[in-house]
Design goal:
The chain has 16 helices and 17 strands. The chain is an alpha+beta fold. The protein has a 15-stranded mixed beta sheet that branches. A two-stranded antiparallel ribbon has the order 12-13. Strand 12 and strand 13 form a beta hairpin.
């Protein structure tokens, strides 16, 4: 139902009550101050959490020129995992399913047809274990059930979601690593941050993080993934479409004398650092002819330090610890006012020529597609579980488990695939 105009005005008029007179230009000036004075390096309580690999620099490339340039990598692969989203059932089971796929550009139909499926479930009944080993199906795909138990009735949905997602993603990447000839892009960060957060979130999740063999398998998979691609000399990177990290703005608030920090997250800060404007008829207008980007940074903020940490958290690492460090650059597309983050392990970005090749590959694709690279979009399409399939799968689970979905009104209103 459309909102009645009088009530629309009533809601919109509330903004007039918010006495906030900060100008955008004030925020841009503040962003410039951060860039010039706080990022080389950005120092937190335990030392530098952000530091340029080479030198602090903002660069720009003509959008049309980079779109027409020959790509550094003739073949690119993308990886993504779609999920059912956690579903509780009336018999006490909570489960999620992740479905991982790898794309190739140009297309490789055999590879596209291969999938890795992980069903993760939680049960309060400790007398049964529904877990299975890997099994093949459909001539090239693999599947597995993993079973976990939490001593308290909390976090079950978060746990089954993360276990399914990261086990499927990392296992599929390793299974098909040899088919990646030039460049692999993960859809999202390069490491499993959804699991890494458990270490610091609560005592229940910390215990699970430290004791679960499934968590250990996931962590080992990502170590192996970095080492496998490093050994083969094939770069691995992650493309973050929705930048939600807050480590920079949080550190500015807590650990520096910067003053009031106006940005809700790091993306807002970097957007204002990278946006180019000119004065036209007394008003500033955004320039949209160039893509802009930062230099590459080494990051140890938040969860980024885990895989490179001194002591290694008992990880079996074959490379020097710093080679696992998270490095990133930020790309800004002014045509749609979007910020993207490109991550890669330091083992790849220490090489200036390889850094530049990754940059130009990503920039060219953004220029052409006005968004994520084609390999990422294709992987996302392959791995996605559409709403209709979710509904059908839930019905199938109800029949197999002889139970019903523990529904709330959202499932009635939006369908079980919401």
């Amino acid at each position: 139902m459309t909102l009645d105009p009088v009530h629309f005005d009533g809601i919109a008029g509330l903004a007039d009550r918010i006495d906030y007179d900060a100008e955008d230009q004030d925020h841009r000036d503040a962003a410039e101050t951060v860039w010039e004075n706080f990022l080389d390096p950005l120092v937190g309580d335990d030392g530098a959490i952000l530091e340029p690999i080479d030198e602090l620099a903002r660069r720009q490339v003509d959008t049309e020129e980079i779109a027409l340039e020959d790509a550094p990598f003739e073949t690119t692969h993308g990886l993504d995992a779609g999920t059912l989203n956690p579903k509780p059932f009336k018999n006490g089971l909570v489960l999620d399913v992740a479905h991982a796929a790898m794309s190739a550009t140009p297309s490789d139909l055999d590879l596209h047809d291969s999938r890795t499926v992980v069903k993760a479930l939680h049960s309060n009944d400790t007398s049964k274990n529904f877990g299975t080993e890997w099994e093949e199906y459909d001539d090239g795909s693999q599947r597995r059930i993993v079973h976990t138990h939490l001593p308290q009735n909390q976090y079950e949905e978060d746990v089954v979601h993360a276990l399914a997602l990261y086990l499927a993603e990392s296992s599929h990447a390793l299974e098909h690593a040899e088919r990646v000839s030039e460049f692999l892009l993960l859809d999202g960060p390069i490491y499993p941050k959804g699991v890494l957060r458990w270490k610091y979130r609560s005592s229940v999740l910390t215990d699970l993080f430290e004791e679960s063999p499934l968590v250990r398998q996931i962590l080992d998979n990502y170590v192996e993934l970095v080492e496998t691609f490093a050994d083969r000399g094939v770069p691995l990177a992650g493309f973050v479409k929705n930048v939600s990290s807050k480590s920079v703005v949080r550190t500015l608030k807590r650990e520096t004398d910067f003053g009031p920090v106006p940005w809700a997250h790091d993306a807002g800060l970097f957007a204002q650092i990278l946006e180019r404007r000119e004065l036209v008829d007394g008003e500033f207008e955004r320039l949209t002819d160039d893509l802009t980007l930062t230099n590459w940074f080494v990051s140890t903020g938040g969860m980024d330090e885990f895989f490179a940490a001194e002591g290694g958290h008992n990880l079996d690492r074959g490379l020097d610890p710093e080679q696992y460090q998270v490095t990133f650059c930020v790309v800004y597309d002014p045509r749609r006012d979007l910020v993207f983050k490109v991550e890669a392990p330091r083992v790849f970005t220490d090489d200036p020529e390889l850094r530049e090749a990754i940059e130009r590959q990503i920039l060219g694709e953004i220029a052409v597609h006005r968004g994520p690279p084609r390999a990422i979009s294709k992987a996302d399409d392959l791995a996605a579980i559409d709403r209709g399939s979710v509904d059908s799968l839930v019905t199938s689970f109800e029949r197999s488990l002889d139970t019903e979905l523990d529904e709330n009104y959202n499932a009635v209103r939006w369908g079980r695939g919401y």
